[in-house]
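Now produce a polypeptide, keeping tokens residue-aligned:
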Amino acid sequence: MELKIQLICSEYEYLCHLNSRTPSNISIEHMKIMLNMKSSEQRQIFLIKSYFHETLKMRSKAKKIIKKKLKEQNSTSESSIYPSGIFDPSQNDLQIRYGLWKNCLFGRFSKSNRLIIQSGINSRLWNPTLAFDWHLPEKILIEDNDEKKFVTVREQNIKKLADSIFKICNKNLKSFRSSFNMVHLNLTEDLPIQILPHLQKSFEHSFLDRTFFNYTHDSYRTFFADKIVFYVDPNASTILTNEDLNIQQDLIFVFNPYSELIGFKLKFIENMFKYKQNEINGNDRIRFRRLPLHDLVVESKQRHLILSFYIECLRQVLFNQIDWMESLYKNVPKKYYKS
């Protein structure tokens, strides 16, 4: 027995000289365990396991000490900044002390997912509707082969358009009480461009975006049956007025999302507008309007390049009750202003 204990001690010292992973000492319990082992390899493995067990205990102990010191420092700093009670002892007249989250009557809630979901449901029930008309007439693309090549061949252009529309919808979802009920119309898989897979991929980033991604195969003429629809386009001859905004409780605005894609020629956008006009065939429910903001920007060639700005300005005019000039100054860069 004595010889085996000496053998174990010599093996331990040898491993220490080799800078191997060994515990700081050998306890009586560890010695009893190693005496029952037959080979030196088993004892070496046992010493390595003991080393890792000892380091884990030391780390947990050090973490507890650090947490304790940090807690003491935070408690002392808070007590020095915010004394107890509602009166400030530094003031001789004992005025009421005001502090962040101290004796407050009102609290500010963060934009949690529950609040965003509730605001999205409320916008569908009560707020105005903003729809994107994804119908791309094949006839116009045939007439202009350059534009057909630009849209159908270059995949990055389609992805860029999907990302731009997704950012508009995502920002709208986080606008809470001033959010639109957004709908995507004429969105089918047999479009001349494969925009639907890119939109679905963009809206799959989060549960909230996926939940409120509302699209249909129907057109705005059938989806909004027996309701007045304002089709917003910079080429419209009539300006949207306050009388139009008060004509019905559930306002409906339709935008052309392709105007967001930089690269379309002005002639192509104008041809799309003429096609839409001929498509309604004198339907009084569909009313084409241009925003007053369209007459405030600097050049007509830039009117179709800032769709997100127009939507944000329309939001502030409807929900914040401000005029178009004020919304222009708040949202649109100065380089677009009309001198």
Summary: The first strand starts at residue 129 and ends at 133. Strands lie at 129-133, 181-185, 229-232, 252-255, 286-289.
